[in-house]
């Protein structure tokens, strides 16, 4: 038990160092030596926990998944289902994504899906998880007759299609006012899918 805990702790530190270097220099410029230097440890120790860069990248994607889960888990558990859903929708269409995981890291990793089947599978699982978490929130509201939604799974998927397209486009907009104007438009479209226009603030 102790050995497993130590291993997980060391792997977490290595992944966090990997993430910080990637933010500064980009994923393509990272080496085991740079990670070791960042952590003041011998490179062989990094290799002991992650034998290849692919393993490091898969660990980083797990780190991204854990970060994005905060969009759903950050709200107090005592909040009722409808307000929890509204909070999550507001989080999805906000800058909170970038607070949890740097956009440049996400897109840097995402580009690798075209060259690496394992990374592609990890990203597919990430997107399915995000949709499943939202679907569960929508279904809970439907079950409690708080909203009307004929197909929670399809609706969750459409909301993320809007979100994914929004962030891809918004990443190219420098003007903060224009950014916010577009974001509000996309957020409103998501709320309308759930007939929650009255909950828009």
From TrEMBL:
Keyword tags: DNA-binding, Repressor, Transcription, Transcription regulation
Regions recorded as binding DNA: 31-50
HTH tetR-type domain: residues covered: 8-68
One Pfam family it belongs to: TetR_N
Gene3D superfamilies: Tetracycline Repressor, domain 2
InterPro entries recorded: Homeodomain-like_sf (IPR009057), HTH-type_Tx_Regulator (IPR050624), HTH_TetR (IPR001647), IcaR_C (IPR041646), Tet_transcr_reg_TetR-rel_C_sf (IPR036271)
Subunit structure: Homodimer.
Its biological purpose: Represses transcription of the icaADBC operon necessary for biofilm production.
Name this polypeptide is given: Biofilm operon icaADBC HTH-type negative transcriptional regulator IcaR
Species, as recorded: Xanthocytophaga flava
């Amino acid at each position: 038990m102790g050995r497993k805990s130590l291993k997980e702790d060391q792997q977490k530190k290595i992944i966090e160092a990997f993430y910080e270097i990637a933010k500064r220099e980009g994923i393509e410029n990272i080496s085991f030596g740079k990670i070791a230097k960042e952590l003041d440890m011998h490179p062989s120790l990094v290799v002991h926990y992650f034998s290849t860069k692919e393993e490091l990248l898969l660990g980083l994607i797990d780190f991204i998944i854990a970060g994005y889960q905060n969009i759903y888990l950050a709200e107090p558990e005592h909040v009722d289902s409808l307000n929890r859903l509204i909070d999550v929708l507001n989080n999805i269409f906000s800058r909170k994504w970038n607070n949890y995981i740097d956009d440049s890291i996400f897109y840097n990793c995402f580009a690798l899906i075209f060259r690496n089947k394992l990374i592609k599978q990890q990203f597919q699982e990430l997107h399915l998880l995000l949709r499943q978490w939202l679907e569960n929130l929508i279904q809970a509201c439907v079950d409690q007759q708080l909203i009307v939604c004929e197909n929670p799974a399809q609706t969750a998927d459409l909301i993320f299609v809007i979100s994914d397209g929004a962030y891809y486009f918004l990443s190219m907009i420098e003007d903060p006012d224009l950014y916010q104007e577009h974001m509000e438009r996309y957020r409103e479209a998501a709320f309308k899918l759930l007939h929650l226009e009255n909950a828009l603030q």
